[in-house]
TrEMBL record:
UniProt xrefs under Pfam families: Epimerase
InterPro entries linked: Epimerase_deHydtase, NAD(P)-bd_dom_sf, Sc_DH/Rdtase_CS
Domain NAD-dependent epimerase/dehydratase: 20-185
Species name: Streptacidiphilus fuscans
Family: Belongs to the NAD(P)-dependent epimerase/dehydratase family.
Stated name of the protein: NAD(P)-dependent oxidoreductase
GO molecular function, one term: oxidoreductase activity
Keyword Ion transport recorded: no
Amino acid sequence: MGGTETTQNRQCEGETLSRILITGAAGGVGTLIRPRLARPDRVLRLLDIQPLAPGEAGDGAEELVHASVTDMAAMEAACAGVDAVIHLGGHSLEAPWQQIMDVNIHGTYTVFEAARRAGVPRVVFASSNHAVGFHTPDEYPLTADTPPLPDTYYGVSKVAGEALGALYHHRYGLDVICIRIMTCFPEPPNPRALSTWLSPDDCARLLEASLAAPEPGFRIVYGVSPNTRGGWVSLEEARALGYRPTDDAEVYAEKILAAHGEPPADDPVYRYLGGQFTFPDLDADRLDRP
């Protein structure tokens, strides 16, 4: 694969398998979905700049690619022969502008352009609620039509990624689904997440729906479980793709509230959808300080 390191496990002899490229496969969400997307009739081509251990994708086949999403030649090679790309790669938290621009924005352009050159028909882009992070509770539930209101450079990069997705659909015909992922962890990490949690199993269900939907065109959907304390964002667009979530953060409520306490109504973490990403410690003049 053109200068990248590739490891292939349990490739089925004489059989053409569906092949999905997952960028950022060693990251938090990538690690969670890797075994959940494994299928006996599917190859997961897993790409990251971090080491990936082989043989962790359940019953499915794997191809491990050590490369950066910013490397066009490597991405073109990684996109060769795949049926879809799930783009998770990039910084998952706020970072100085140059890092966000290089990896999250330029890297996302590289992924879309490499997919176009390789003839990949579909890209699923991991956007974020931080693309609309400065919207307030009086506007809930936010929908796909809610105007972008990013809370950080990171959020700006997700708006840019969605815009690139729209361009590559309308100009080049790629099917592009942008998932504004909320809080995806094995369990809700805090009281706020009782409203924003996306369970790993529901995340996989949403990704499978995004891969299977016939001719989706360009879509923006929210990635969240149907939590009892939810309602912050709309699930209608995701359900229209075929998403059938089943999990509810409420099963963890007693444990979470016992550990953290019931937050006050005026807790600033609830002031905006972006929560702590809107706090002043992420102001631009602080990002480069040690």
